[in-house]
Each structure stands twice: as structure tokens, then as C-alpha cells.
Design brief:
Layout lengths: L1 E5 L4 H10 L4 E6 L9 E5 L5 H11 L3 E4 L6 H6 L1 H22 L2 E7 L9 E2 L10 H14 L5 E6 L2 E2 L10 H10 L4 E4 L3 E2 L2 E2 H13 L4 E4 L6 E2 H12 L6 E4 L14 E2 L2 H7 L6 H10 L8
Length: 298
């Protein structure tokens, strides 16, 4: 199988390309980061450049394009809607049109932010109602993919985390660990809830769904639903740091441009169709601890 991953320097893109390159012919795209993935070819691509997007996918001739490129900063999407539209909507249109021309299927990475249903267990068939402008642009991307006529997977996830590469931004786990490892207190929010998702676990599930030729919408998210504060407490416990360093705070004190939701994704369908269990927070953090950079897990 020939695979092209857009956004191959990002957290999920990098993990997906690295995983799939073990067994498949993989290429990936980057824009500003010069990263290398063993066994995979690299293209430089800005997905807002329509002609180059068409040309790269035409050249790569992939069986499937995994579209991870996106503007994921919620607050930036809220304050710069033109940029969010250019990348998350029109960029997705460019990728989809290129897939049509190349005869490729597509896997589109989406988000729990397409919903606004606090604490309800959300199945794939529940009606989206975006919680913020980022969620709106990703829902528009979903609609472009679903109406394309292409075989597709829409993979919604929530709060992915893993060890990062040097060029990647921190995530909810590595940011907490950076503070705790320096014996610095960290404030975490008690009224934002997520399903933390180990990136490797996400990639295993999505990779299996793609390899098996599955299509449709899937919720690929961790099995626990807990506040950012409670997740930080679990991180401290898993890595042997003092829980006293984790201080509670209310989201209302932040005054951020984008509202966050408390959307809980049901992962039953993804687990059933992939045959792979999606891990809870304790299991994911155990994996993280056992796979610390520079530490052998054997």
C-alpha cells in the first residue's frame, strides 16, 4: 500500500508515517520542519497552495492520503478566522480534489471539538455542533471529505499526547512533566474535561482500520474522561512526582478567546472494528513512562 501523510512533522503525522513505513511505501509532507522518517520519502508542501498540492499527490500516486495538516491552535483559529479557513477548509478542499484526481482514498483527522454536548457520551452518529471556530473548520473539513465520493475515514480524537520530537510543541503530558521535573508547581484546570489519547495507540487503531479497508467515521480517543487537573495528578503519580505541585484552577480565570468543550467520545466502534483496545489514562501513562526517550523498555 502506498501512503502519503500530510503534516508529517506534526505529532500524529510523524507517528503515523513512522508506524506505517515499517510495512508500507510511505511519503510525508512538511512545511517548515526538516525532519527525517526512516524508510519514508519527504515532500515540502503548503496545502493552501492548490497547484502544488495537486502536483505532489499526483506525483506520489498514493492509495491513501492521511490528512493530518491543520491549524489546531484553538485560540488562533478564533482570532484569525481567515487563516483557519485557508488551512482547515480550503487546504482540505485542495487535498480532497487532489485525491479525486489521483484516485486515492482519504483518512481525515478531526476532533471532539465538532461537538458541544458537555459530558454526554457521543457516538459517531450524534449530530455535531461545534464548540468553537476550530471545531467549525474541522466540521467543514469533515463535510468536504464525506461528500467527496471518495472512500474515506474521518477519525475524531481528543487530547493526544506522547513524547515529542525536538521541533514539536509540548502537549498536555509533556508540558506537565517539564514543570514537575523541574520541581515547579503547575496550575491545571478543574472544569475542562477530555479523553487523553496516547498517540501511539491512536496510530495503531487508525493504521489497522486503513489496512483493513474500513470506511466511515470513527471516534479514536482514550477510554477515560477526566479533568485536566485530574490528568495532571495521574501524571505526577505515574512518574513519581509530588501531587502537591499540581494546583487547581478554574477555566474562567484564563479569559481565552476560544471556548473549550467537555465532549466525551465513545470509542466502542473503533475498538470493535480495529480489534485494538483504546487505553485509559493510567495505561497510557505507564506506556509513556516505559518508553521515555533514551530509556530501553526491554
Amino acid at each position: 500500500m502506498r501512503v502519503l501523510v500530510t503534516g508529517g512533522s506534526g505529532m500524529l503525522g510523524y507517528k503515523l508515517a513512522s508506524r506505517l513505513a515499517v510495512a508500507h511505501s510511505v511519503a510525508y509532507t512538511t512545511l517548515t520542519h526538516d525532519c527525517t522518517i526512516r524508510g519514508a520519502g519527504r515532500f515540502t508542501l503548503d496545502i493552501t497552495d492548490r497547484q502544488r498540492t495537486l502536483g505532489i499527490i499526483r506525483k506520489a500516486k498514493p492509495d491513501v492520503v492521511i490528512h493530518t495538516s491543520a491549524l489546531t491552535n484553538m485560540d488562533m483559529c478564533e482570532t484569525n478566522k481567515e487563516l483557519a479557513d485557508a488551512i482547515n477548509i480550503r487546504g482540505t478542499e485542495n487535498v480532497v480534489d487532489a485525491c479525486k484526481e489521483a484516485g486515492s482514498s482519504i483518512a481525515f483527522i478531526s476532533t471532539s471539538a465538532v461537538f458541544d454536548s458537555p459530558h454526554k457520551l457521543l457516538a459517531e452518529e450524534d449530530v455535531p455542533n461545534p464548540v468553537n471556530y476550530y471545531g467549525f473548520t474541522k466540521l467543514e473539513g469533515e463535510r468536504i471529505v464525506a461528500s467527496s465520493g471518495l472512500p474515506y475515514i474521518i477519525a475524531r480524537t481528543d487530547q493526544p499526547y506522547c513524547w515529542t520530537e525536538k521541533w514539536q510543541k509540548a502537549n498536555s503530558a509533556t508540558r506537565v512533566l517539564s514543570m514537575l521535573s523541574n520541581n515547579k508547581p503547575i496550575k491545571e484546570i478543574t472544569d475542562w474535561y477530555n479523553s487523553p489519547t496516547l498517540a501511539e495507540n491512536f496510530c495503531d487503531v487508525l493504521g489497522k482500520l486503513i489496512e483493513d479497508g474500513r470506511t466511515g467515521t470513527y471516534h479514536i480517543a482514550g477510554s477515560d474522561f477526566l479533568s485536566r487537573h485530574d490528568f495532571a495528578l495521574k501524571i505526577a503519580e505515574a512518574f513519581g512526582f509530588s501531587k502537591n505541585l499540581v494546583r487547581p484552577m478554574d477555566a474562567s480565570t484564563l479569559r481565552l478567546p476560544a471556548r473549550r468543550g467537555n465532549n466525551r467520545l465513545s470509542n466502542t466502534k473503533a475498538e470493535k472494528d480495529s480489534g485494538i483496545r483504546l487505553l485509559g489514562a493510567d495505561e497510557g501513562l505507564t506506556y509513556l513512562r516505559e518508553h521515555m526517550p533514551g530509556v530501553s523498555s526491554s
